[in-house]
Prior knowledge:
By secondary structure, this protein is mostly helical. The chain is built from 9 helices and no strands. The radius of gyration is 19 Å and the shape is globular.
Amino acid sequence: MTAPTGRRERKKAATRQKIADAALRLFLERGYEAVGIRDVAAEADVAVTTLFAHFPAKEALVFGHDQDFERRLTEAVTDRAPGEPLIPALRREVQALVRHCTGDGAAPIWRLIDASQTLLDYEKSMRLRHAESLAAAIAADLGLPLATTACRTIARFVIDAYSLAREAADPEAALDEIFRMIEAAWAVARPAVDPTGTTEP
């Protein structure tokens, strides 16, 4: 019973990737604003309804790893080893994300994003959503019913660390500098949200 599900998922993933590749190809050739959803569907040889089944909005075609990034950030909190401190775990995941987004071929995509106010606005709202999800994961890790201001602040610092490091001439050095500040901020904030001090060594 598991094999058909596996084939179905692989087929869905292949279709999604085909659509994303077609969209990026057209966006880079013509510019984001000049390409419509129907253009992308035709280029990918799929129906418009199929496209929307994989991507809820045109902007999402550019940020295809959005949900994966969000999941990886929250899992850096929830899936870290017992006793592993929070901030180093988050730094390791942000470092991996920055490396992914500064690798070969990434520069044209960021130029595309920087040239479109629509995409810049979408990226901003995406970052805020990621920060809220991360704050909720941090709060849950501490056994809190809701994300406190401290949890949300640290989460936003971490999301901003990703953006700042990605834009820096030396991303690794930028991450070192930024996470030293985040570590210091968390050392101040953690007693307020975790008075027992039992969550981390």
